[in-house]
Amino acid sequence: MTTPTPFPLLGKLLNGATMLSRIAIWVAGSLTMLSALYITADVISRKFLNAPLGGSDELSGYAFAISVSWALSFATLDRANIRIDAIYQHLPTRVAAFLDWIALVALAVFIVYLTRYAAEVAGMSWQSQSTANTILGTPLWIPQSLWVAGLVWLCVVLALMLLRASLALITGDIQTVRTICGIRTTKEEASAEAESGKRLVQMEQQP
Fold it and tell me: Does any domain span residue 31?
């Protein structure tokens, strides 16, 4: 997501957050892929060698939670979160922009509360040195801390988005408000799908 002026510093921070979030989503996707490969290897080993690798269900659960928390920031920046727009699309532009801002505020408040309680859970696991009730006996604070770190990064991203959207709303820059936190238009969805299709074609054409 590119952020227009007249707030260049804030725009640079948001663009930097987008770049870091893009890296995070690739790492999260790789973690999910590794989890799937490990589960596959476990199933094959269990079936043909009668020697399960063990821990696939536990590790995949950690991988899923961590990858989701780190992918949320990019999904939010890319406005990929689902919103009901049956009435929204018929509203005046300024009213719709204000509701976009309200939706961003509500999301930020929810995520802050979620992050707070998630951090408390990780903190209690650290203090009590809790371990998973499994063969691996994983110290729970390790996956929980990685999970919480993703939520903390989402809070940072939401704070930048909310600050930029608030300044745009105050100055009457409705288009920027909608660019930051509005529902993606049909044209934007079509462009994203076309770009995705183009990348797939390029990958298929590679030797």
Answer: yes
